[in-house]
Design brief:
Layout: H1 2-5, H2 9-24, H3 33-49, H4 57-73, H5 78-85, E1 105-109, E2 120-126, E3 129-134, E4 139-144, E5 150-155, E6 162-164, E7 170-175, E8 180-185, E9 191-197, E10 202-207, E11 212-217, E12 224-229, E13 234-239, E14 241-242, E15 245-246, E16 251-257, E17 262-267, E18 272-277, E19 282-286, E20 292-297, E21 302-307, E22 312-319, E23 322-331, E24 335-341, E25 344-349, E26 355-360
Antiparallel strand pairs: 1-26, 2-3, 3-4, 4-5, 6-7, 7-8, 8-9, 10-11, 11-12, 12-13, 14-15, 16-17, 17-18, 18-19, 20-21, 21-22, 22-23, 24-25, 25-26
Length: 371
């Protein structure tokens, strides 16, 4: 039964939840077969809806929700019924399919043989490889995406954030404890090329262009987001207070949208995502209603935000100089950092996890929720 259900992600998760629920109650699984067969019919009906005219979706969604509630009512547990029906997105009446695709989960361990625990503070993609920063073991690790094997690693003093330099085979790595920006060459074996001293302890970093980068400082009482040159000299400082309002407290992660020249700052201290221009002027403040950590964006302005306390990855869309919620969120355990490669997300989790999780993204589901 398990193998058969894997052929369809939506059916698989519905049926697996039903199976686990029945097992936990100590009942015979055969007692739930009637529900099973009704779910098969219901899933077939849902698949047929995907070809329905757009105008008929709203009426059909209500019918599907009623059918699903009826099929689950025989379980006798109101909580389980609520859990199962919540797969219908709140924005189902908008211009989307009635059910948001559920992502596929996979992953691999980033722990090396001589390590016990990991703290994977940053993950970035570089061509066909992934670069992972392990702050617990003070290592910069490089993995092949296809084989998921570690190609090489480099020992540093206090690696924290990283970003690929434009038009270069180097990455820049922040080392806050020694107030340093380290430049690592990625040709063949990773090697430390040079270092630049800074006046502040920078954690997250993101390259803007061939001349500038943006970095976040989380020092107590002196938090800021600075635009620097590659010598480590500060060009522009956006302080934690602007017009008597708190702008930053703990800048946890940064990403850059080059087409819109917009810097996105994920701040876990004030629980906001702040948009800045490359001249340091505030563009917007977005409330994700969570404690955000890692953030990344793709070329289509899809933005992925790790919601540390809510245990999911929030999918956002940058449009009209604002961030908008979409209909898709991916459940994860304490996501810490995220990067996107084609149609996949690569996510690290808070320690003691050493896993890099892989999620397949269904981009058609990333519609803006305007309800």
């Amino acid at each position: 039964m398990y193998t058969i259900l894997q052929s369809n992600d939506t059916r698989y998760w519905i049926f697996k939840s039903l199976y686990i629920y029945t097992w936990l109650k100590g009942e015979d699984i055969s007692a739930s077969l009637s529900i099973f067969y009704r779910e098969v019919y219901l899933c077939k009906h849902i698949n047929e809806l995907q070809g329905s005219p757009r105008g008929s979706v709203k009426e059909e969604v209500g019918h599907v929700k009623d059918s699903l509630s009826l099929a689950l009512s025989s379980s006798g547990d109101c909580f389980f019924q609520t859990t199962m029906t919540c797969r219908v997105p709140a924005c189902a009446a908008v211009d989307i399919l009635p059910f948001t695709p559920i992502p596929s989960y996979d992953g691999f361990s980033a722990k090396l043989e001589d390590e016990h625990t990991c703290l994977l503070t940053q993950i970035i993609n570089i061509g066909n490889k992934l670069l992972v920063i392990d702050n617990e073991n003070k290592r910069l690790k490089r993995f092949r995406i296809r084989s998921r094997s570690c190609v090489d690693h480099l020992l540093l003093n206090d690696p924290c954030g990283a970003s690929l330099l434009p038009l270069s085979s180097h990455v820049i790595v922040t080392e806050p404890e020694i107030r340093t920006l380290s430049f690592v060459c990625l040709e063949e074996t990773m090697t430390l090329s040079s270092r630049r001293k800074t006046e502040k302890k920078y954690l997250p970093v993101c390259c803007i262009d061939e001349e500038r980068l943006v970095a976040g400082c989380c020092e107590l009482g002196e938090s800021s987001v600075d635009i620097l040159n590659y010598m480590g000299i500060v060009l522009i400082t956006v302080t934690s207070y602007q017009n008597e309002a708190v702008m930053f407290r703990t800048p946890a992660s940064l990403t850059y949208l080059p087409g819109d020249q917009c810097i996105l700052v994920s701040d876990s201290g004030i629980c906001r995502v702040v948009g800045l221009t490359v001249t340091g002027k505030p563009k917007f403040i977005f409330n994700p209603k969570c404690t955000p950590s890692g953030i990344c964006a793709d070329k289509d302005k899809n933005v992925f935000l790790c919601c540390y306390d809510k245990k999911y990855i929030q999918c956002l869309k940058y449009e009209n100089n604002q961030l908008h919620r979409t209909c898709s969120d991916f459940i994860m355990k304490c996501p810490l950092s995220v990067t996107t490669v084609k149609n996949y997300l690569y996510v690290t989790e808070e320690m003691p996890s050493d896993k890099v999780s892989i999620l397949q993204v269904g981009y058609p589901s990333l519609c803006i929720a305007r309800l």
